[in-house]
Amino acid sequence: MKKISCLLILTLLLSFAAQAQFRGLDKSPRDIAYFPDHFAHDRKEGDKALVKISYSRPFANGREIFGKLVPYGKVWRAGADESTEIKLYQDVTIGGKKVKAGTYSLFAIPGETEWTIIINSDLDYWGAYKYKEANDVIRVTAPVSKASSPVENFSIQFKPAPAGAILMMGWASTLVEVPFRF
Questions:
Q1: Which residues form the signal peptide (predicted)?
Q2: Which of 26, 32, 158, 168 is the most buried (most CB within 10 A)?
């Protein structure tokens, strides 16, 4: 009986130790936006991605987002946690400016009526704390509009458009759209 009790206690301790090795769930889950959308029902087999954006999706949680949590006029990582990363599988024109195929970081400078969207060559760092304007590849402006319904988690998606796509970024009541031409 003592052996069974000791074995049971040892098993319980080991299971708690195994649980302690892993951190809890992220407060801002990671997501990926593709164009063309790899999850769309009308996607044709063999369609290859032209662009992929990997980002974190913070929750609004009843907070005032733009102008308060995310200040106007300051560089923002366009998400949470790690800087947002954009991979272009071919050369593309974003907001009228050409960008070569490659992997970049994506930042924004939110404003009340327009945002500055930034493609930057620096990669793999946390947030926008080490952002260097000297490494900007392009900057384009995009108008702000009101979302048709509140967006709880910061979201990035693409919608098809003639000769390309529209990058949509939305959070709370804010929506920003940036044209991509392939």
A1: 1-20
A2: 158
